[in-house]
Amino acid sequence: MRATMLRSFAEPLTLETVDDPVCGDDGVVVQVRATGVCRSDWHAWMGHDPSIVLPHVPGHELCGVVAEVGPSVRGWTVGDRVTVPFCCGCGVCEPCRLGETQICDQDFQPGFTAWGSFAEFVALPRADLNLVAVPEGLSDVEAASLGCRFMTAWAALHVHAGVRAGEWVAVHGCGGVGLAALMIAAAAGARVVAVDIDAAKLERARALGAEAVASDDVVGSIRDVTGGGAHVSLDALGHPVTCVNSIDCLRKRGRHAQVGLLLGDSRVVPIPMATVIARELRVFGVHGMAVRHYPAMLSAIAGGSVRPGALVAKTIGLEAASDELASMGSFAQEGVTVITPG
Prior knowledge:
Blueprint: E1 2-5, E2 14-17, E3 28-37, H1 39-46, E4 61-69, E5 81-83, H2 94-97, E6 121-124, H3 127-130, E7 132-133, H4 140-160, E8 168-172, H5 176-187, E9 191-195, H6 199-207, E10 212-214, H7 218-226, E11 230-235, H8 240-248, E12 250-258, H9 273-278, E13 282-285, H10 294-303, E14 312-316, H11 321-327, E15 336-339
Parallel strand pairs: 8-9, 8-11, 9-10, 11-12, 12-13, 14-15
Antiparallel strand pairs: 1-2, 3-4, 3-6, 3-15, 4-5, 5-7
Helix pairs in contact: 4-5
């Protein structure tokens, strides 16, 4: 198969022909039809994730067709169109037994703990637990955009923060996951303040439903426009400044969701715990979403209240993956980029 290989961190990827993946007893091999280029992939490329062993194939936001099925698999057949959470469960550990497969003790992450989807094929384990059927009305490209950013934003707002109609939601960072959060919050009836330093991204945020935007004096601007602070705030970037701003902009008893990864030089953040205590704030870490929450998200998409396809700015081939991934270091992307390997 053709695959985009990472052989040295922070160096260009190479498009190579490598052996096809081997199907496990309880797994499947999926022919990749579309796969997103995510900032998490950029972190992997930079060497921020200690689980990655070189050489490596990145990619974790995928949609494809089942090409091979292991002998122990009962729920899937060749030809089924599927997606998968970026963090797959084992089904045995305590979190998995409680239905929280996204924080599995033995998690499998395509593109991180194993070769991923910047390739023509990818092997996925424990198919009966982890795979999600893609509805007919959802395109391959749209389904790929769900794999990390959209479903993580959904989990942040609906599973953790419990966003309600009429509440103010602040979204710090208008990349793919930030724009997804904005769309999901607006669809829930919330009023959204979008934060970014890029005027074009703020314009896109307004087009997707942001009622207000901010780029300077972020905390003060949010407090002014919301009449005292956001009810819910998300750090959708993953930086000490955006993390602290997200907490500081909350009104009393507000909820902060940390969605952006804090890795590399941003791994340690001086959280203002005095503020958390004084305002009785709630702080949530969000590590993807369990498979059991997909039906609610897919139902909202089918009903038209959220449109993940509107977040996709462009599609590219495997040969362009290296340049696209490198560009994420300067936040050059607007919206979501999806690779179509075929």
